[in-house]
Amino acid sequence: MKRRFLVLPICALAIALAGLPPLAISAEQQRISGPYTADNLSIYFVHGPSQPGPVPLTLGEALKRNLAAVYETGQVSRLAIENKSDREVFVQAGDIVKGGRQDRVLAVSLVLPPRSGRIPIGAFCVEQGRWRKRGGESAARFHSAQELLPQKAAKLALATPGRRRPAQRQLRQPLNTSVPAVAQRQLPVRQRILQRQGGASQQQRVWASVRKMQSKLSRNLKTVVTSDVSRSSLQLTLEHKKLAAARDGLIASLRDRVKGKDDVIGAVFAINGKINSGDVYPSHGLFLKMWPRLVSAAATEAIAEKSTKAAPKPAAMPVDKIAKFMQLAESGKTERKPLGAQLERETRVAKDKAIVMSTRRASGDFIHRSYVAY
């Protein structure tokens, strides 16, 4: 198949963006190629110039080499993270850290400076019910970060706060009955309150998305993908042998598509002919480090979302639709929040259509952009 390239129009980000900071990579410098398709998963590459300078370690690399640490704090929604190396460490929103009292997913993208000391970081639980050490793991810290959050609904939950019910109504809600009473008493107060919120909070939406993905994977793989060690753990589900085999088969035909394309800085994924999500990085080097985990997460969701009914294969989406999706997200309503003194998180929401979350340095340079379709 002949691959098409689309150069984004110069006006792409000029629509209603007066007064907003420009992207570090301008629209006219960015182009899209693809699609590269396997079964119900299609990949589109984002091409552009790389920012100069050394490529940071990823959190997965740093934890594996004991150059970083993620610590339990006793709070479900907050962990502590430390860079012990002389290099920067890149942390991506959606990194799943395994261990502690519960597996968590980190809520923000950031770069840890060398010898950072302990820094607080927001997190959500992706293992409902456990609040103690698991097997030989440490309850005080997390030992790996090898997977990315694989579901669009969960990514949207991380990015968009839900509505909270009034406190008096929350307290009348029963605790989640999927968690044994003994385990509920072991949970911290904050998590027990979250369980009474009737599904409207960000944490409840993350839990719901995990359960739904586990159910879909079990249906499509015709086996129970939850682990007897901890049935609610998303991380342990992602380690299931049958899922790994199915995922590897899908990845095999897509993983090497990036070879020889030394200007790729991001990727957008479509599942069942619909845009799902995408990630863009400041350099080709950082993209290459994240690429295996990006395609693995996309393959997992594609397996979960594959229809069990006989249906015609959806037509490949043209690259101009991918470009329009990214442009739409960039044109959305903007909110900014500081992430310490040197970083800022910027969220742009095109209501009910698309969202883009960017983390920027004080200089204005971005370190990660995450696009999600509604």
Number of strands: 18
Distance between the termini: 29 Å
Helix content estimate: 25-40%
Mean pLDDT rating: 84
Write the layout of secondary structure elements.
Layout: E1 4-7, E2 31-38, E3 41-47, E4 57-58, H1 59-64, E5 68-75, E6 78-83, E7 89-91, E8 95-99, E9 104-106, E10 110-112, E11 117-125, E12 141-148, H2 152-159, H3 167-172, H4 181-186, H5 189-195, H6 202-221, H7 234-238, H8 241-252, E13 264-271, E14 274-280, H9 284-305, H10 319-330, E15 333-338, E16 343-350, E17 354-361, E18 366-373
Parallel strand pairs: 4-7
Antiparallel strand pairs: 1-2, 2-3, 3-13, 5-6, 5-12, 6-11, 7-10, 8-9, 8-12, 9-11, 13-14, 14-18, 15-16, 16-17, 17-18
Helix pairs in contact: 2-6, 6-9, 8-9
Commentary on this structure:
The protein has about 375 residues and is α+β, with helices and mostly antiparallel strands. It has a domain at about 5-50 and about 245-374. Helices cover about 30% and strands about 30% of the residues. The chain has ten helices and 18 strands. The chain has helices spanning about 60-65, 150-160, 165-170, 180-185, 190-195, 200-220, 235-240, 240-250, 285-305, 320-330; strands at about 5, 30-40, 40-45, 55-60, 70-75, 80-85, 90, 95-100, 105, 110, 115-125, 140-150, 265-270, 275-280, 335-340, 345-350, 355-360, 365-374. Residues about 1-25, about 165-185 and about 195-200 have low confidence and may be disordered.
